[in-house]
Amino acid sequence: MRKKIHSFTASLGLMFFFVAPAYSQSAQLIEAAKKEGKVAVYGSLESDTGDAIFRLFKKKTGIEVDYWRASATKVMDRALSEYRAGKPLFDVILTNDNPMQIMFKEGIFAKYDSPSAKDFPKDAIDPNLGPRYRNVIIGVVYNKSIINPAEAPKSLEDLVKPQYRGKLVMPDPTQHTTTTQWVASLEKLMGKEKAGKYIRDLAAQKPVLVESLLPAAERVATGETPIAITYVKYAYIFGQKGAPLDYVRLAPHPNAGKALIDFFLGPESMSTMAKMGEFVNRKGIYPPLPDADKIQFVEMYDLDSKQFAEKKKEYQQIFLR
User: Fold this and answer.
1) What Å distances lie between residue 281 and 122, 131, 261, 269, 300, CA to CA?
2) What is the CATH number of domain 11-133+252-284?
3) Are the C-beta atoms of residues 186 and 250 closer than 8 Å to each other?
4) If you average pLDDT over every residue of the chain, what do you get?
5) Fold (CATH) for 136-249+301-319
6) Share of the chain above pLDDT 90, in %
7) What angle do helix axes 72-84 and 97-105 make, rounded to 10 degrees?
8) Taking Cα atoms as reference points, which of 150, 131, 153 lies closest to residue 141?
9) pTM for the predicted model, two decimal places
10) Which of 159, 192, 292, 301 is 20 to 30 A from 56 via CA?
11) Do strands 208-210 and 168-171 pair parallel, antiparallel, or not at all (unpaired)?
12) Long-range contacts of the stretch 185-191 (C-beta < 8 A, 24+)
């Protein structure tokens, strides 16, 4: 019997800013993009993955990519600040779906229907933001040199057992947007009452709270903290660098921006991303993680600005008291 692995997915999408005439992925578009010289990208896509894709893009088109990477929260904050000041400096945003929805409601995006989108399933295409190009799976990652696999937690519920107190690191749900969303979405797996109790029990474990999901994984990779709530893909990414990690089996240059979107959603880019451990939504492409094709995705709640503020306040009372 095939084992189903349940984890939350924070779907990621992309959008560009400027309004411009529509082009297809064509020589005409590439030539217009070359005249602009470069494309400015803000995103939370890991630098190693982004650099690999952007190098391919430059090789194919001759267009430079100026990439600024930060957490989803910081990407959203910077983009909104620039837009509200009337001085946006970005062309493309690559970050989590929920912040993208918030930015879309602020009116900062122009719609572009990329011809590369046709090879994504319909349920992975947002009518306003286009394809959700990957699913980033949040789960439990642990260091096998510190936690024996036989003694590792087998579920989220196990994390609140006494033997794991003080051994967990996670992003701060009062500051990190994706983690706020993740904690709020636990009721989709557990039910509202059980999830409420679980959140309080999790806070009582006194987890180390860090800025975002990458620092959580880094602490586990170095052995500083043995268990993390973070992206499952880090078990593969840091494992490739020798870290003994496993995961508990529970997503200003408009023409250059369009050209990058077309390439980014294409088969070469998505295959490159999958080979680096990402769960992409393009059909038939999986990362080289054991059982990757068996994972069943559970979408996290989409929270608006008011709901984020309410949840962060609620979690301050739980996690920081």
Assistant:
1) 10, 8, 15, 12, 16
2) 3.40.190.10
3) no
4) 87
5) D-Maltodextrin-Binding Protein; domain 2 (3.40.190)
6) 58
7) 10
8) 153
9) 0.62
10) 292
11) parallel
12) 185/8, 185/298, 185/299, 185/300, 185/301, 186/156, 188/298, 188/300, 188/301, 189/6, 189/8, 189/156, 189/298
Chain-centroid distance of CA 220 in Å reads: 19
pLDDT of residue 17: 43
What secondary structure letter does DSSP report for 301? Answer: P
Comparing 32 with 23, the larger pLDDT belongs to 32
The answer to whether 140 touches 246, Cβ cutoff 8 Å, is no
C-alpha span between 164 and 188 (Å, rounded): 24
- Other C-beta atoms lying within 10 Å of the C-beta of residue 35: 9
Where in the chain are all domains bearing CATH 3.40.190.10?
11-133+252-284, 136-249+301-319
Q: Render the burial of 107-140: b for 16+ CB within 10 Å, e for the rest.
A: ebbeebebebbebbeeebbbeebbbbbbbbbbbb
Query: Within its chain, how far is the Cα of 289 from the centroid?
Result: 17
